[in-house]
Write a structure and sequence with these properties.
- There is one protein chain.
- The protein is mostly helical and 169 residues long.
- It has one domain.
- Helix content is 97%, strand content 0%.
- It has two helices and no strands.
- The chain starts with a helix and ends with a helix.
- One of its GO terms (biological process) is centriole replication.
- This is DEUP1 protein.
- Keywords: Coiled coil, Cytoplasm.
- One of its GO terms (cellular component) is cytoplasm.
Amino acid sequence: MEADFSEMRNELQSRDALWRRIQLECQQLHTELLKIREYKDMQEIQIKHQSSCVQITEQLENKNAELLLLAQSQEHHREELNKIRNHLYQEEQSHRSEQERMKTVISDLTEELHQKEITIATIMEKASLLERQLKMELEIKDKLLAKQQLLDFRYKVVKSENTHLKEMV
């Protein structure tokens, strides 16, 4: 996209240079036209050579025709420059809009990531707490199981003694 902008700027600069050359030529032609008019006026006052006047008049008409063509060309170039400027402006606006949209998306994604990080931290904290609670419950159950086994063993010993005592009685 930057290459397109650069190309458009280069084209715009090229057309501006062409426009300046055309203006310079117009000024030169205008100066030349003024000189021709002065020369024509001098010829009319002196009326030495009728053919020179006709030739100068033809030249003047040719220069006028050239000036008209240059003015038309100048207007055409001005319109093209305006079109290019408008297109460049639209492209820049589009680029700015796209940048703003991307900034918004990045901001939204960053916020979403932040929320997920908070959620993960909360879950990890709860998991750690549950793990500690589970370890404590396992320890309690292990102690209870050990007591139960001890009681079972004592019960069997007492039962065995009872059975032995019954047999002896």
